[in-house]
Specification:
It is built from nine helices and 16 strands. With 390 residues, it is α/β, with parallel strands linked by helices.
Length: 390
């Protein structure tokens, strides 16, 4: 646990403390940030309070009294509900503004781990509960130098697998050999395995109308053949296998299986590409100017371009998501559609920029990863500028 860093962050945000709480291992963020694993299944509630200054302290149930032994500070044991409330009141003494894994109106569900009843209980003891979302971003979404290197190496390998997948589709079409979404999905997974990459699910290989379903994924039972004239969308994500600190690389490219794509397809691709680039520029300009930039503002820049081109109704998801050890990380999302994400874009974080336009007959998405450093921001892998001619 990075106690000194946590307390410094609490002080900088004018918070009296950070209250961690769990029951039945419902809050994985708590264990990652505190840096411990439960010694046994968590069947009783525990609380751990880190004040902005002073020693942390914990509250545990008597039959699981050793649950927080790996963490510093004194622990108090309770058994009855009355003793639990008294113990929590003592834990929070002098704590007025207290962070918890809570999000007002559940605006950021990735950090909204604490149930409403527990928030009510803490408030009844005189504490103001504020969201830990910005703290979570500092301690969960900021990458180390090593993590950045794992991302860049994963990117090189994923980019290579993607290009071979498009080549494989083209080779099969030219040789009049049947090819399907399902077969290319497995071709990519084999490429990941051969390249030392891990993914938790996916990838997406989608043609035509299937590409208009942002979370479509072919299965053995449900998939389409890939034929000449088809729009082909491939969304794939992976990280280096065997490294617990490795972080994901996540991209989407779109191609057309034929000598010349229809003008409508080309036009939609160019709108999506230019919207993507508008978002990248918005981030880069803000970082260089040291301007405070929130996730929703990046979404506005991207979505505004698509709306101006008359296709706003067909862009049905947020612009991008945080990337970390999970492909959808705990940092700021580029979102002013599904949520109004006011979390700041901060250094040493990475996120996707992935606008899409999803028409009834075909869909186009273009996704890159943007890493924010102290003095600049850049795309971490290859950037698609034209439709892939398959």
């Amino acid at each position: 646990m990075q106690l000194n860093e946590i307390q410094a962050a609490l002080s900088s945000m004018s918070l009296d403390g950070w209250l961690f709480y769990d029951h039945h291992e419902r809050d994985p963020l708590a264990y990652r940030i505190l840096g411990f694993k439960p010694v046994r299944h968590v069947t009783r509630r525990w609380y751990y309070y880190i004040p902005a200054t002073g020693e942390p302290r914990g509250l545990v149930h008597r039959i699981e009294s050793g649950m927080l032994d790996a963490l510093p500070g004194a622990k108090t044991a309770y058994s009855s509900w009355q003793l639990q409330i008294d113990g929590l009141r003592n834990l929070l003494r002098r704590g007025r503004r207290v962070a918890m894994q809570y999000s007002p109106n559940n605006a950021v569900p990735y950090v909204s781990m604490v149930d409403a009843g527990t928030v009510e209980l803490v408030r009844s003891l005189g504490a103001e509960v504020v969201s830990s979302a910005d703290l979570i971003q500092v301690f969960e979404a900021c990458w180390t130098d090593h993590q950045l290197e794992t991302h860049l190496e994963a990117g090189r390998r994923v980019d290579a697998v993607l290009q071979t997948a498009f080549v494989e589709i083209g080779n099969r079409l030219r040789s009049a050999t049947a090819v399907s979404e399902w077969e290319i999905k497995n071709f990519i997974l084999d490429g990941f395995s051969d390249s030392g990459l891990f993914t938790d699910h996916g990838p997406i290989v989608a043609v035509n109308a299937n590409a208009s379903n942002p979370h479509y994924e072919p299965t053995q039972e449900q998939h389409l053949p890939i034929r000449r004239g088809d729009v082909v969308l491939i969304d794939l994500w992976a990280k280096l296998a065997g490294d617990p600190e490795a972080v994901y690389y996540d991209i989407t490219w779109t191609g057309h299986a034929g000598p010349e794509a229809p003008s409508e397809v080309v036009n939609v691709f160019e709108v999506v590409r230019d919207a993507r680039d508008a978002g990248i520029r918005r981030v880069q300009q803000a970082v260089v100017a040291k301007e405070s930039l929130a996730g929703y503002q990046v979404d506005d820049a991207v979505r505004g371009h698509i709306v101006a081109k008359g296709l706003g109704d067909y862009f049905v998801h947020r612009t991008g998501h945080s990337i970390g050890r999970d492909v959808h990380g705990a940092g700021a999302n580029m979102d002013n559609l599904e949520t109004h994400d006011e979390r700041r874009v901060i250094p040493r974080t990475c996120f996707s920029v992935e606008p899409g336009v999803y028409l009834p007959s075909f869909g186009i998405r273009s996704e890159v990863n943007v890493y924010v450093a102290e003095t600049g921001a850049h795309v971490t892998g290859k950037t698609q500028t034209t439709l892939v001619a398959i």
